[in-house]
Amino acid sequence: MSELNRTRPSLNIGVEEEYQTIDPRTRDLRSHIQAEIVQKGKTLLAERVKPEMHQSVIEIGTGVCQNIQEVKEEIVSIRRQMVTLAKENGLRLAAGGTHPFARWNEQEIYPDDRYRVIVEDLKMVARANLIFGLHVHIGVEDRETAIQIMNGARYFLPHILALSTNSPFWLGMETGLRSYRCKVFDKFPRTNIPDLYASWSAFENYVNLLIHTNCIDNAKKIWWDIRPHPHFPTLEFRICDIPMRVEETIAIAALCQAVIGKLYQLHERNLSFRHYSRALIMENKWRAARYGLDGKLIDFGKQTEVPVRDLIHEILEFVSDVVDELGSGEEIAYIERILEEGSGADRQLRVFSETGDLHRVVDYMIEETEAGLFEPAQSSTAERG
User: Fold this and answer.
1) Tally of CA atoms within 13 A in the half-sphere of 296 that contains its CB
2) What is the pLDDT of residues 121-136, one digit of tens each?
3) d(Cα 322, Cα 258) in Å, to the nearest integer?
4) Secondary structure of the chain: what % helix, strand, coil (to 5)?
């Protein structure tokens, strides 16, 4: 029993969101450098706020949270403070996987050696990578367990992507995809769905070979849709567009936690979720990026197409006992609302269909990013103002 307790994952959670900094007059992206928002954010929130490669991207991250309620409290607080800070400095924040009409070649790179090296290495591929994601870390401390659970979790990635899709526009064009962000990012090397790994040592051998042959200098340059984080004892989901509403982020994070919890439950019983090849899962990823919640994914076991919404309901049923144990039922229930109202991409497209104006789409993204942040805390924000 002590051995089991030693290797049992904590399933603690950390969440990172990447926000767009918007000029309220033009609705285009604008650098946050002059406003010193990152520096001012660090004063308020310490290491919870970081710059990203482009000067119009701000990344925030929670601490290590023990449950989804802690995540919600932190994310709402950080979003609220960053939205307020942006407004005070002549900017607005928007959450979307891509900006509807900004041009990447007009965006400056943040002055940092790490980003300078990436741009030098990847050239235009890096400069064009003007995208905004949601990353969810789930604590799986034993590395051998982590690699086995990652093998199974790969199957669920397209379903999770479909829920988060929020990037239907690129360079002022309607792309026809619900997540164009995926197609921008997969120009990077070492992206998309990972291969199957028989053991942690097999994964380490892969990483060490890349380092030894000067492909990478460290494992952080492996940018798969799910990966064992090189510095934290977590599995990191990286497939998602950043959703607009804070409740969407919380619901998707809760689903990621529940999937890992369920797969561990099977693992400790010497069972495993059936493993499928990278090539098959990539078929589903394409469908999720192209059609989002309105498409069909392949049920590989039955070898048939199934509507995405039906499959997501199946996943919710699959993880339901773990959700009860985790106490995340209320947060994960918001997924039903996403299924009813559509993902961020569906709602952006609706606004564009009604208005024909991408500036109105940006306005909508800003409104949704701020939605629900200030109601519970009117008194505290009034005191600060």
Assistant:
1) 8
2) 888 888 888 999 999 9
3) 6
4) 55, 15, 30
